[in-house]
Write a structure and sequence with these properties.
3-stranded antiparallel sheet; Kinesin-like_fam; Kinesin; 19 helices; binds adenosine-5'-triphosphate; flat; 3 domains; alpha+beta
Length: about 850
């Protein structure tokens, strides 16, 4: 079921101030609420609030509440909008009284009885134009539970339970299940919906439900309840078609909203409901349960609702419907704190934005409507047939056949559009895949570049030569070290022998110095050696890194080859798919052209038969002429209707394609911007520019085609004669000039045009579009839009095909139908098609 969005609107809030009650006066309560005269403004203490309406107290009389606040919602109901009316306020503030569900007070002046009056009054007025079906449900939400107040298993007697008044339900019946649908909507499984036909039946449902409602006593009011209640009326209307009244006039009558007209939902089946809620602190509880944890901690009674219930209550607050909240309040000073809270909350509720919607199902409803119309005409036809043959019968027969054909067309179109969708989806999928694979390839190329440059850095040194150099140096150092060590050992031995010789005497200075110098040299050599070892280790590491890089490069290259192969394969698959599709279409084309030839042949035979029949029944010449006129009239109508229908379709499809192209173009422009920093001749910049150009060119072509379709559409609409249509006949005896077989050949990228003599019998010519000069193209467009460009898309090709050649086989269907009629009508003197 499609949903049509209406305009956003805020929740409307009307304050209803009840008078001081007798009890309150006796207790010496004072009126603490003031209404600013002539304004919807309420003052309590130092606080001042402005609402949409204020009733009661010194404000407007409550009697005008229904007309001003609720009646427009009932009107909207007949246009397909949901509506919600909520009563909100502290216990004893007058919600039951205002809604009129108490079955005592306000039962006549309350909102719900007035809604019923208005609803049934409207149904009575519209009953000739539409069929209505009404259902009601009544639920009570008490803490975490939903109770079905119209459940017949409830017994109507009450008994005291734990000091409270409660009711008994017959065991066995499962409670109402709160479920969440896949679209997120909250549904109540197993809820009773009662079909009602009269106001009395609806009133009795309301009364029964109210009686069933759980009640409990409180200190303030022993009739009050702690639960929320929602009474829902569902209205379904099915429009009856009156053939004597134009469709647009009927649309005005019933679904006269602008929205309905705009979307073409006229005459459709609407499904909508009005929720009328009488609930105790319904809104306040919902809000508290959602977030007011602080209040709960302070000990304020805030019943928890589980999340589904909360959403159910929120749905009742509007969401998709037009909502009016009536904030009921007591003027007594003892209730001033609660009253102030009510006003504060009501004031906040005015900021809630709703989005009212209309529910509809255009395609199936349109087909259903047509079926109905056909049935209606058939019944009418049967009535007429009882009274003998006449022109009217013929006209009706024609209308029935035309409707049947249009219906078939619609169904076929539905199938076609599925094919087209499949094709578009396939191309789209291919483009996406190619895109993502292209990106992947780019990424691989980048990585490869990076790895190769890293490799260059490592490979920049001649690793082998370096290694040998290091080795050599190391060996030299080793030798040097050895020599120094030998020298040291020799010196040490010398030192020792000297020491022994000196026998405790000091060593000569030159020996000591030499010894020190040798030790320093050894140390230096050791350092050098260590450095060399370190360098060798590093070299080893970089070799390993280079090896790893090499492997990575090889891997990336393999991936690249694989991806390129995949891209090729994918493109090949698409090409094959397209080729097989083209083959299929060719076969269809062939078949259709054969049908077209057959249709011409049959039509000629039919005309021959008619001529012969006219000669045979020369005495009844008038009848033949009337039959011929009737045939001609039908043909005119049929052909013009086919034109209008197809041109509209073509226009819509071209518009959609143009929108998609514009979006893609915008996207490409955005894409191109960040790339502008790269050099203009750069790979990315260049391809992006070229793509953009191509898109712009393509879009221009689309716009031309749309303009063409529009010009044809207007020319078709402004002229109901067959003569305007270039592919129709100039021979009055042959209503269809079926083009020669060769015309059905096609090549991609051609235009369909014909010679300069406007009314000769020249065949259409297929000319490659490139061969046409600009002037010629413009001339063709100005001649009434005979320019079509066939492009790569099959679906466009299909459309061209349908546009140009559909009529002959339509005729063949019609002729088949006519043949049957002739067979049936044989005994009669004048066989009519
Ligand atoms: N506008 C009014 N004029 C006269 N009496 C009223 C009006 N509104 C309410 N009352 C009286 O006030 C009393 C309480 O009203 P009501 O039962 O409608 O309150 P409530 O908000 O539904 O209470 P609860 O939430 O406890 O069910 C009833 O006796 C009712 O008759």
């Amino acid at each position: 079921m499609a949903m049509v969005n209406g305009e956003d609107c805020c929740v409307k809030v009307a304050v209803h101030i009840r008078p001081l009650l007798g009890d309150e006066r006796q207790q010496g309560c004072k009126d603490c609420v003031t209404v600013v005269p002539g304004k919807p403004q309420v003052q309590i203490g130092t606080h001042s609030f402005t609402f949409d309406h204020v009733y009661g107290g010194t404000g407007f009389p409550p009697s005008s509440m229904f007309e001003e606040c609720v009646s427009p919602l009932v009107d909207g109901l007949f246009q397909g909008y949901n509506a919600t009316v909520l009563a909100y306020g502290q216990t004893g503030s007058g919600k039951t009284y205002t809604m009129g569900t108490g079955c005592k007070d306000g039962s006549q002046t309350g909102i719900i009885p007035q809604v019923m009056n208005s609803l049934f009054g409207k149904i009575e007025t519209l009953k000739d134009q539409a069929e209505f079906q009404l259902r009601v449900s009544f639920i009570e939400i008490l803490k975490e539970e939903v109770r079905d107040l119209l459940d017949s298993s409830y017994v109507g007697k009450f008994e005291a339970v734990n000091g409270h008044v409660g009711k008994l339900a017959v065991p066995g019946k499962p409670p109402v299940q709160i479920r969440e649908a896949s679209n997120g909507a909250i549904t109540l499984a197993g809820l009773t919906e009662v079909f009602v036909r009269t106001q009395k039946e609806m009133t009795s449902c309301l009364e029964q439900g109210s009686l069933n409602r759980a009640t409990g006593s409180t200190n303030m009011n022993n009739q009050s309840s702690r639960s929320h209640a929602i009474f829902t009326i569902t209205l379904e209307q099915m429009r009856k078609l009156d053939p004597s009244v134009t469709e647009s006039a009927q649309t005005e009558d019933i679904a006269g909203s602008d929205c309905a007209k705009r979307t073409g939902s006229d005459g459709l089946r609407f499904k909508e409901g009005v929720h009328i809620n009488k609930g105790l602190l319904a809104l306040g509880n919902v809000i508290s349960a959602l977030g007011d944890e602080k209040k709960r901690k302070e000990g304020v009674h805030v019943p928890y609702c589980d999340s589904k219930l909360t959403r159910l209550l929120q749905d009742s607050l509007g969401g998709n419907s037009r909502t009016v909240m009536i904030a009921c309040m007591s003027p007594a000073d003892i209730n001033s704190e609660e009253t102030l809270n009510t006003l504060k909350y009501a004031n906040r509720a005015r900021n809630i934005q709703n989005k009212p919607i209309i529910n509809r199902n255009p395609i199936s409803e349109e087909i259903q409507r047509m079926h109905q119309h056909i049935e209606y005409l058939q019944v009418e036809l049967a009535c007429y047939q009882g009274g003998g043959a006449s022109d009217e019968i013929q006209a009706l027969k024609e209308k029935v056949s035309w409707l049947e054909a249009t219906n078939e067309d619609l169904c076929r179109e539905l199938c076609d559009s599925k094919d087209i969708d499949e094709e578009v989806a396939k191309e789209w999928e291919h483009t996406l895949l190619q895109d993502s694979m292209g990106k992947e390839l780019n990424e691989l190329n980048k990585r490869l570049e990076q790895k190769e440059s890293e490799m260059k850095m490592i490979g920049g040194f001649d690793t082998l030569a370096l290694k040998q150099h290091f080795k050599k140096k190391l060996m030299g150092l080793e030798e040097e070290k050895k020599a120094v060590q030998q020298e040291r050992d020799r010196l040490l031995a010398e030192v020792e022998s000297l020491a022994a010789a000196s026998d405790g005497h000091k060593l000569p200075d030159n020996h000591l110095q030499k010894l020190k110098a040798l030790e320093a040299q050894i140390l230096e050599l050791k350092k050098k050696h260590d450095n060399q070892v370190q360098l060798l280790k590093q070299k080893q590491k970089s070799e390993e890194a280079a090896k790893k890089l090499q492997e990575e490069i090889q891997f990336i290259e393999a991936q690249k080859v694989q991806l390129q192969h995949k891209i090729k394969q994918e493109a090949e698959q698409l090409r094959l798919w397209k080729a097989s599709r083209e083959k299929e279409l060719l076969q269809v084309l062939q078949r259709k052209s054969e049908e077209a030839a057959m249709a011409t042949k049959k039509l000629k035979e039919l005309l021959e038969t008619r001529k012969t029949s006219a000669q045979e029944h020369s005495g009844n010449l008038q009848g033949v002429q009337s039959s011929e006129r009737s045939l001609q009239r039908w043909l005119d109508h049929e052909l013009v209707m086919v034109h209008v229908h197809e041109v509209r379709n073509e226009y819509e499809k071209q518009s959609q394609a143009r929108t998609a192209l514009s979006e893609e173009l915008a996207f490409l422009r955005r894409e191109a911007l960040p790339n502008s920093a790269s050099p203009p001749g750069g790979k990315n910049g260049h391809s992006s520019k070229a793509r953009r150009k191509e898109m712009e060119k393509q879009q221009k072509m689309e716009e031309e085609a749309v303009a063409t379709a529009l010009s044809i559409s207007s020319s078709v609409n402004s002229n109901s004669s067959l003569k305007h249509s270039a592919d129709e006949t100039s021979d009055p005896l042959s209503p269809v000039a079926v083009p020669a077989q060769k015309q059905l050949k096609y090549t991609a990228g051609i235009v369909n045009t014909r010679g300069p003599a406007a009314f000769d019998n020249h065949a259409w010519k297929m000319v490659p579009i490139r061969q046409l000069s600009l002037a010629k193209k413009q001339a063709i467009i100005s001649q009434g839009g005979k320019l079509w460009r066939w492009r790569r898309s099959h679906h466009q090709w299909l459309l061209q095909f349908k546009w140009k050649w559909q009529k002959p086989w339509k005729l063949s269907e019609w002729i088949r139908h006519s043949d049957k009629t002739i067979m049936r009508a044989r005994p009669r003197p004048l066989p009519l098609p």
